[in-house]
Amino acid sequence: MSIEALFFMMIAFIFGGLLKGATGAGAPILAVPAMALFFDVQFAVAAFVIPNILTNLWQAWQMRHDLPCRRLVWPFALSGMLGALGGSVALAYVHLDILTLGIASVMLLYIGFRYVNPRWKLSMLMGVKLAVPAGLIGGFLQGASGVSAPVSITFLSAMHLARKAFIATISIFFLMMGAVQVPSLIYLGILTSERALFSCVALIPLFAFMPVGAMLARFLSPERFNQMLLALLFLLAMRLIYSVVV
Questions:
Q1: Computed from CA positions of residues 215, 220, 223, 224, in that sequence, does the dihedral angle turn out positive or negative?
Q2: Which residue in 122, 127, 133, 140 has the most C-beta neighbors within 10 A?
């Protein structure tokens, strides 16, 4: 790996840490597509899997007393595990260009949904009913592309959970998926020793900038922060598409 590539990898995790600290979720939204620009989707997913587990383990423990309805949390998380297993297999056998376009498409769908339905609300009763399909689809996206936000984060955000309840739920969801991803990616030859090493190194900027993101969130309105995030995601999606078609 060149010095330039390593530099951009660290930048991706710095911004991922800022987002994770500011919102409690969403680090893969920035880190995985950014890394996919300079490497490939397999490397991006593998490099983020260990940081994803450790950061969400930490947040899940911190927010363990703030979990909402258990009938929502555990079906959502366990079905996410099954989805992630299927997505990991797709990551190993589907052509990388298809996966790259898949990430870009998923990001554009997420952006479009946020703009078209900014105030859509889902009741807790309906959320419990949709927990399994939402978990399966979100888990598959996480396993195949490293980005489940178009389903997982949108699903929970639509329920208007309190911030701590949201963080507790999404952290358990990502944690359970990571527990499946690691052995699956090792077995499929995607999480190699080299990628695991870089994954561990990436913990440094991720953890270092999470407190910075939490601090910045105090001075930036949620609306303005979301607008900036969506604009950045759009640019990343366009760049991913460009890297495939040109």
A1: negative
A2: 140
Which residue is listed with tokens 């309190």? 162
Contact 176, 56 (CB under 8 A): no
Distance CA 244, CA 242 (A): 5
Rounded CA separation 146/139 (Å):
9
Quick one: three-class SS letters along the chain?
Answer: CCHHHHHHHHHHHHHHHHHHHHHCCCHHHHHHHHHHHHCCHHHHHHHHHHHHHHHHHHHHHHCHHHCCCHHHHHHHHHHHHHHHHHHHHHHHHCCHHHHHHHHHHHHHHHHHHHHHCCCCCCCHHHHHHHHHHHHHHHHHHHHHHCCCCCCHHHHHHHCCCCHHHHHHHHHHHHHHHHHHHHHHHHHCCCCCHHHHHHHHHCHHHHHHHHHHHHHHCCCCCHHHHHHHHHHHHHHHHHHHHHHHHC
Which residue type, as a one-letter code, is found at position 183?
Answer: P
Q: Which two tokens stand for residue 192?
A: 């190699």
- Whole-number Å distance between alpha carbons of 105 and 103: 5
For residue range 125-184, list pLDDT tens digits in order.
898 999 999 999 989 988 887 778 778 877 887 787 877 788 889 889 999 998 888 998
Q: 10 Å Cβ neighbour count for 126?
A: 12
